[in-house]
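The material for today's practical consists of a large collection of protein records. Getting from the letters to the tokens is the skill we practise here. To make this concrete, we reproduce a full record directly below:
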Amino acid sequence: TQVVSVALATAIVLSSIVSCAGIQCFKCNSHYDKNCGDPFNNYTSELINCDQEEHRMSHLPLKEDETRYSANICRKTVQIIAEEVRVIRSCGWLPNPESMKDRDCFTRTG
């Protein structure tokens, strides 16, 4: 029974490591939830495990080992649609070449 207890404890530890391996980001849209805008109030926003959003990375090419890329950033998108400023927070992915190492913030327009 001690072997079974050790095996069970090991399985529990390993499953907790796997479930928290990815980054977590807030997922919201200020068009539907004003707390998502600026200033940000996470009271009503969902914190999600980005590894569970892998289907959203299906537009990216596969890596050399034929697996999908995982999210590596939390992103905030600001859009102006019909004169309404909308903020969308979600998981995202950026390539991480050496030239971008240690950067905290990226801005893109267009």
In short: The radius of gyration is 19 Å. Residues 2-19 form the longest helix (18 residues).
